Amino acid sequence: MKGTFFTKTLLLAAALLISSLGCMAQNDPADQLVGTWKKTFDQGSATLTFTADKKTEVEFTGDDVIDVWGSYKIDGTKITLTDEGGDYSSGQSGAYTFTLSEDSLTFTVDDDPVFGRSTLVQGTWARTADAEK
């Protein structure tokens, strides 16, 4: 009788652990970041796209050209953006802290030597309708 109770308890604990690990994976900021985000500013607007394979694209609305593309790395709530190509690419990296909700993404500059990128990226971005999961 004690052996059966112990076995059932152990199986229940294992099931709860697996379930909680699955939920944690779904709450991974990198997964939630994937999609297209839009920011409007005085001179117009831009979209910032994050892909699941850790690539980024910036497009200034209205010119139908990917203006900057690159990659990103995430460590907790820290993100490093690296420009790799495009007309406005710096070829450098910048570091930010981000907060993420279902419909908004906010960046705060930690260390970015590229004034244009830091000016564009910092602030709040809204998830676009075509990026909804």
Structure description:
By secondary structure, this protein is of the alpha+beta class. It contains three helices and eight strands. It has an eight-stranded antiparallel β-barrel with strand order 1-2-3-4-5-6-7-8. It is globular and about 65 Å long.
Task: Name the structural class.
Answer: alpha+beta
Radius of gyration from the alpha-carbon trace, in angstroms = 20 Å
State the order of secondary-structure elements, H for helix, E for strand.
HHEEEEEEEHE
Mean residue pLDDT: 83
Largest sheet report: 8 strands, antiparallel, barrel
N-C termini distance? 48 Å
Strand order across the largest sheet: 1-2-3-4-5-6-7-8
DSSP strand count? 8
User: So how many helices?
Assistant: 3
Strand content: 35-45%
Low-confidence stretches are: 6-25
What would the principal axes of the Cα set say about the shape? globular
Portion of residues within helices: 25-40%
Topology:
Elements: H1 2-26, H2 29-33, E1 35-41, E2 44-50, E3 55-60, E4 68-75, E5 78-85, E6 93-100, E7 104-111, H3 115-121, E8 123-127
Antiparallel strand pairs: 1-2, 1-8, 2-3, 3-4, 4-5, 5-6, 6-7, 7-8
Offer a few descriptive terms.
43% strand; 8-stranded antiparallel barrel; alpha+beta; globular; 28% helix; 133 residues
